[in-house]
Structures are given as C-alpha cells and as structure tokens.
Amino acid sequence: MGWVRTRRDSKGGFSFLEINDGSCLNNLQVIADHNIDGFESDSGKLHTGCCAGITGKLVQSPGKGQNVELQAFSIEVYGAADPEQYPLQKKNHSFEFLREIAHLRPRTNTFGAVMRVRNRLAYSIHQFFQDRGFVYLNTPIITTSDCEGAGEMFQVTTLNPSSPPMIDAKVDYSQDFFGEKTSLTVSGQLEGEVYALALSEIYTFGPTFRAENSNTSRHLSEFWMVEPEMAFYDLEDDMDLAEDFLRYLFKDALEHCPEDLEFFNKRIDKTILERHRRIVENQFERILYSEAIHILEKSKKKFIYSVEWGCNLQSEHERYISEEVFKRPVIIYNYPDEIKPFYMKANEDGVTVSAMDVLLPKLGEIIGGSQREDDYEALIKRMKAKDLDMENYYWYIDLRRFGSAPHSGFGLGFERLVQFVTGMENIRDVIPFPRTPKNARF
Amino acid sequence: MGWVRTRRDSKGGFSFLEINDGSCLNNLQVIADHNIDGFESDSGKLHTGCCAGITGKLVQSPGKGQNVELQAFSIEVYGAADPEQYPLQKKNHSFEFLREIAHLRPRTNTFGAVMRVRNRLAYSIHQFFQDRGFVYLNTPIITTSDCEGAGEMFQVTTLNPSSPPMIDAKVDYSQDFFGEKTSLTVSGQLEGEVYALALSEIYTFGPTFRAENSNTSRHLSEFWMVEPEMAFYDLEDDMDLAEDFLRYLFKDALEHCPEDLEFFNKRIDKTILERHRRIVENQFERILYSEAIHILEKSKKKFIYSVEWGCNLQSEHERYISEEVFKRPVIIYNYPDEIKPFYMKANEDGVTVSAMDVLLPKLGEIIGGSQREDDYEALIKRMKAKDLDMENYYWYIDLRRFGSAPHSGFGLGFERLVQFVTGMENIRDVIPFPRTPKNARF
Q1: Predicted confidence band of residue B148 (pLDDT cuts 50, 70, 90)
Q2: pLDDT tens across A175-188, in order?
Q3: Neighbour-count burial of B308, counting CB atoms closer than 10 A to its CB (0-12 exposed, 13-18 middle, 19+ buried)
Q4: Residues with Cβ within 8 Å of residue A254, at least 6 apart in sequence
C-alpha cells in the first residue's frame, strides 16, 4: 500500500508503477499487466499522488536500479489525485513553494528523508541518555518564570483581549486563567536544575519559544530543545558529555540512515558525509575564550563585527575558528561574566564564568552550556548585579540553601542539529510545520 | 555522591548515614567513623537533606535491610541543609503540602519513584513505536487550527494586553506576532493525519493544553499526549494496536521498575501489581456502544447520570463496565455520530461512527480513537452538519482530495497512564510542575 510516484505505460499491455509508502527513500517498482483485477476500472485514477493497495508477487528484478519488483495480481485505488489539480507532479519544486503546501510536502523525497532522519535523531537522543541512566523530564511549557536572557516571550492568556479586566490602569492578571501573567517557556533549565538536585542526572526534550522578529534561515519561533542537567558535573565533565553526545548522534545517524544521508549528500550538500565522519573520528578542539579572541585578533581575515576581549562572538567568528582554523568542532569555554546569564558559575579570576559553547564547522554554535553557580552567596551577588527580582526566583535560590551541589548542563537546539545532519539550508524545512513571524499556518 | 536522608550516631564513635542519589528507591548505608577525613569539620552539616561526596569501600553488609554498605574513608559536604529551615525532615508529608514545595518534592521517596516510572513509560512508548517503524512527529504547539470538540483553548499573543490595536471594534490580529489569532494546541491529530498520509505510520508525543476550569484529580491544563496515526488501518487494526500498546507498556513497567512498583503497591495502592499483571495476561473485552448501553440499562446499579442510547458515557458507567462487569480493560466501539467529532468515519448504519474508547478498571477512559473519514464527500457532509468553517480546514480536506487512504489513530493521555501505573490518586502528583486553574508556579 502506498502512493504512486510515477507511472509509465508500455506498449506491451502493461504499466510500470513506482510506489512509495514513506518508510524509505526508494520506491517499489510494480509491473501491472493491464488484464489484472482492478486495473481497467481504476486505470484512469492511477496517476502521480494516487493512493493504492496492490497485491502481487515480489520477485528479483531483471531491470537496473532495483533489486526486487512486484508483479501485480490486483490493484485497488484508495484515493485518486487529479493530475489537473494535484500540486506535486513529477518535477522539481522549490523549497519555498513546498513550504506553501506543508500538508503535502512530506510526500516528496526530500521531506520524507528529512523526517526520517529527524525521527532517528530524536530516538538516538533518548537512547544516549537512557543508556546512561538519565531521567527524562517534562518541564512546564506555560510558565511564570523567565530563564533570564534567553529571549522575548509569548504571553498565554484566556482574558478577553478586546476588553481585559483592568485595575489601576493595568491588566488585572488575578482574573486570568492562572491568576497571574504567564508566558511560553524559553528554556527548561531552571526546572531541570530542580530535578538534577534530586535525581542526579536528567534531560529535557521539549518545545521552547522565542517571540523574536528574526526572519533568518536559522531561527524558529517554536523549536525543540534538549537540555541535560547533571549534579556533580563540573565544566570539564559537561564538555566531555557534550562531545560524547554529538559524536554518538552523528555515528548513529551514519549507521541508521545511510540511504537518506546519501541522498542529502548527493542532492543538498556534497560535503556532509565527509564532515560527519570527521566529527565521529576526531576529538573536538577545546580553547579558552581568551585564546579565541587572540586567534581572531591576529587573523588577517576581515570580519563584519570587530573583536575585542569582552565581546560576544558572532557567527562569522565562530565559523572562522571551527571551519578555517581548526577544521573540526571546537569548544570555547570560560566566557566573560558580563555577557553571560546570572546562573553561570563565577570563576576564581573574577572576570569569567564557567560557560562553554560547542561550534560546528558550517553551522556555528550548536550547544551552549555551563557549570551553574551552586554557592548561595555568589548566586545572590550575581543576581543583584544583574538586577533580578529575587522573589520570583525564591525556589531556584532554595536549591542553594538546601543540599546544594556542583552541577552543570547544556542546551542543544534540535532543529539546528537536524539542519546540520541533513545539510538543509533553511531551518523551516527540518520541522513539520514551522512557526515564524507572521506564519502559524496548518 | 548524594543527599543524606537520615543520620544516626552510635556511641562507639561512628555514624550511620543513609544516602540517596535519586537513581533508585533504596538508600546506600554509609558507616562513618568519626576519625575519618572531613567528618569532624563537616559533622555539624551532616543532616537530612545535606549533599555530600563520600569515598569508601563497598562491603557486604552484616546488618539487615541491605546487601552492601559503604565504609567511609572521607567525607566532603557540598551543601548543607539547615534542620531549622529545611522543610523535608524525616516524617510523612501530605501530598498537598509537597505540592507547595514542588521544587523539593522530587527528593522524597514517592516523587523520586513517580518520576523514574514516568521516565521508563516515556522511553517505553518510544521503543514500542520505533520497533514497529513508526516515525516520531513533532506537531505544532502554537496553532491557528482547532481540533474541533477537544476543548477550550489558551490564546498566544505578543500584543500589549492593556491596549491592543483595534480595528472596527475588534482586536487587529494582523498586528499580532503571527499575523492572526493563535492558540495552544489541544491535539496534534489533524497534523498527524498529514504525515500518516505520507509516511504511513507516525506518532506524536508532546504537550497539549486545555483552558478548562476543571479542578479535579484527573485534569491538568497542560499535559502530555501520545497520538499515533496510521494509514491503511481500519478501526479493528486501531483497536489491536491500542491493546498491544497498553499491554506492552504495563509489561515493560513491571519488568523495568520492580522496586518502585513494589513501593507503590505497598504504600499507595495495594492492588496495582495484581491489576497490572492481569492486564498483561488477559485480552481486552470489546463491545459495541449499543451493548454497553444495554448492559447499563439492565443493571441494578444506581447511577448519578441516567443512561439511554445516544448519551455520553460518564466515568461511573465506564468504571462499572470495566471494573464490575468484565473485571478487565474494555474497548467500547461504534459510538453515536452525534456525540463524536467531525473527523470520525461514518458507519454504514447511518447513525454511528467508527470510534473506540479503551477503559481501564479504576481509571475509566485512557485511550480514545477512531477511524478517520477518508471520503471527501462524506467528510464535507459531516463538516457542514457540524457547522464548521471549511476554509480553515482546507489543508485537512485536501488530504481527501489527493491520494486519500483509510486511516486511523488514537490518543493516550500520558499523565493518566502514569497515574494508573503508579496508583497515585491526584494527577498533579505525576507531573513535575502541574498547571491547573490559578496555578502556574515554578
């Protein structure tokens, strides 16, 4: 059972049908004699996009391009697809066009392959952590807290938006569904820390949201994130885990998705197979933020953004370091205090924090993580310096009052990973139904 | 490394510490001579809730209650927990009280066990579907569509709520982030059908939302749902899969969580182990909705809600049928058209649809599913009868215009499953941070 991709009629009174059921990239070739049951009556419907059930005998194929083929005994059409109206005729369609018909694009070779690879990566993420005894954690989507610095938030409400209840010229959120102002989560990290400080090693894998007006090929308003959090890990343990994790995922994808990755390597980006193998086979480079700045300053390359100690690294800097200088994944660590959020652990030098970013050639940052500040006094000091509302974070602070422990974690943007593994240029093409500014269709 | 659960000092100059790191229910007993490194200096901190790293020799235990114990060489306290302030002292706390300190409750026996069982069930769900070649699908959380009849929705917006832009006395959603009115999803089914009609067999596992003011022990405003959707499955295939799925999950939990389930069986509900084994070992009963009505009508039991053909079954009816009549899980199928949503397949009798619910003793409905209407004309007719806006569903209707196929699916509320497997009475106690009316804390 599957969907007809192509049909070719032979003069000898039979037809060749290419059938695909989405389980793999390759089609099954069907030889249908025009005298078999159902052929004559359904022949007018057997076009590209039509869905049919075919009974037959699977035999070795004498033709080129396939090992086996099906000699049909009978055909039943489940649903036709009028060639005058069905948008997916046999020709190349632009990814822009396919985004307009996101409800039909999974029936194409490219999107079928993307979704199978995405599926394998998701499962592989679970296997990696489960094999190591991590507990999968569902942190809340609707939240009253804000993982500071992560980004703009969407508001969640059941109030009547054209006339919300007001009190003292402000919206009276005590009448809203949750009795206070709520938003969609930008990160499950803070809640992840709660559980790491009880179950030792946990990971989240769920949707997160950014209400930023970023119309780029690397940003989504809704995306899935993986966030492990581990008690008793320092920054080095954190970097070790991040490296093991990424190499495991690439190895697993090469092993389990060879057909789909060959397809991407041929049609989308001819360098991905080689790049993935290099990631699996080589250790990541690890350099201090200060070294990275030094490398960038002494480089003869012209950058759009100038570099000095204390600056945020831009994508052009990150790619230069991983692609051109080291030609492999690079972990940069110990970033300046000032450019990092309140929860990161202060280093003894007084100016840096135990933060790390993993950079991949071609992509830039794929993982960001840190050791967390586990000392009560140091955390309070950092929160005051960043002018945060302590009351809002009382439960997070409590973790440092009661049985605190060194702990670390990181976050991986799942769609960026799928993008990198498949070589797809636009992040909107690696998620079933992308949400971006001015677009929440389907 | 772990958290001190209890400490007992012996007169002989040593202490017994019970240490737990959340990886399992049982503690590790530590024998700490008062002369070892770190003991004297940290002794004042070694109380319940304190986090410590202990080095020592693991030996067979001469005492009762454990096979092994640790003879400590040295102790280092990572974080103290002032006994005057730490709320989790060694005594029984009510679940209501523990909900108030949801950031500390995972450190208790009960919540550690709940989260380990929850973790295992989540992984087991992935394994079940992955082993069968299903593709894991992330359907959108923010949506403009509404899986009709599923329930009230939360609105998602970035407009200024105290003065939203207005046009013709209505909120001008063209200025909202997505350019139209958006909500949190109540179900991924419709988008799941898109992918089933391309990849054949898919499943979702993600958060869903209901803005209903239900303050019961079985309702959450934010919960996780599993929704498989399969091309080429009719209602019977759908029921077969649902039954296989549930029996697999219970079998897997019994195999992989024996210690935690023994704990629940002892402390929470003394019938769960026996009930789970019965589910694994016995076939589910399958009866028509009409038969269920007949059984209820002729029963001598007094129900709060009266019964007649065409009514919705209430929890009391569902539990009577599965607990008292059949004493096992029951699948009721072929429900009246009028009480079911537009997307369910009309049966030939003209009054019922191919819907099914799986009922568990003690819990009631755990799975609801159906064969979907795959015929274009029949779908349009049903949508008109239910007065739906066709334009909004153009892409869903397209699936019946282009390569339609018989297909079916179902939904399982994940927290209800965890509730049933653990025996926990309140659904707020089987999710890390519950969201309910007037509560979105942490």
Answers
A1: low
A2: 999 999 999 999 99
A3: exposed
A4: A261, A273, A276, A277, A280
One-character DSSP codes across B103-165: TTGGGSHHHHHHHHHHHHHHHHHHHHHHHTTPEEE---SEES---TTS----EEE-S-TTS--
Q: Per residue in A332-364, is it b (16+ CB within 10 Å) or e — as a string?
A: bbbbbbeebbbbbbbbeeeebbbbbbbbbbebb
Judged by a CB distance cut-off of 8 A, whether residue A438 touches chain B is yes
Q: What is the per-residue pLDDT across A330-385, written as a single tens digit (0 to 9) for each? A: 999 999 999 999 999 999 999 999 999 999 988 889 999 999 999 999 999 999 99
B410 phi and psi angles, rounded to 5 deg: -155, 170
Mean pLDDT estimate for chain A: 95
Q: Are B52 and B4 in contact (CB under 8 A)?
A: yes
* Residue type at A113 in one-letter notation: A
Asked if A103 contacts B399 with a C-beta cutoff of 8 angstroms, the reply is yes
Judge if ipTM > 0.85. yes
Q: Are B135 and A152 in contact (CB < 8 Å)?
A: no
Portion 240-299 of B in contact with A at CB < 8 A: none
pTM of the predicted model as reported, rounded to 2 decimal places: 0.97
Residue A404: which of B51, B171, B207 has the nearest Cβ? Answer: B51
At residue A65, the pLDDT reads 80
The per-residue pLDDT for range A276-301, each reduced to its tens digit, is 999 999 999 999 999 999 999 999 99
CA B131 to chain centre: 21
Chain B residues in contact with A199 (beta carbon < 8 A) = 21-23, 106, 112, 115-116
Which three-class secondary structure state does DSSP give residue B402? strand
CA–CA separation, B114 vs A220, rounded Å?
34
Q: What mean pLDDT is reported for chain B? A: 95
Per-residue pLDDT band for A8 (boundaries 50, 70, 90) equals very high
> How far is Cα B374 from Cα B397, in angstroms, rounded to an integer?
9
Percent of chain A scored above 70 by pLDDT? Answer: 99
Q: Do B138 and A403 touch (CB under 8 A)?
A: no
For tokens 């619910």, name the residue: B357
Determine the Cα–Cα distance for residues B336 and B433; give it in Å rounded to an integer. 37
Q: Which of B408, B341, B124, B135 is nearest to B249 (CA)?
A: B124
Contact B198 A106 (CB under 8 A): yes
Alpha helices in B370-427 (DSSP H): 376-385, 394-401, 414-422
pLDDT of residue A63: 81
- What is the C-alpha to C-alpha distance for residues B32 and B76, in angstroms, rounded to an integer? 12
Is B432 in Cβ contact with A194 (below 8 Å)? yes
Q: Is B194 in contact with A144 (Cβ distance < 8 A)?
A: no
According to DSSP, residue B350 is labeled S
Residues A19-52 as b/e (b if ≥16 CB within 10 A, e otherwise) read: bbbbeebebbbbbbeeebebbeebbebbbbbbbb
- The helix/strand/coil state of A153 is coil
Q: Which residues pair with A218 in a beta bridge?
A: none
CA-based end-to-end distance of chain A: 26
- For the four alpha carbons of B78, B83, B86 and B88, in that order, the dihedral sign comes to positive
Q: Which residue in chain B has the smallest CA separation from A161?
A: B161
Distance, in Å, from the CA atom of B277 to the CA atom of B127, rounded to the nearest integer, reads 20
Q: What's the pLDDT score for residue A148?
A: 63
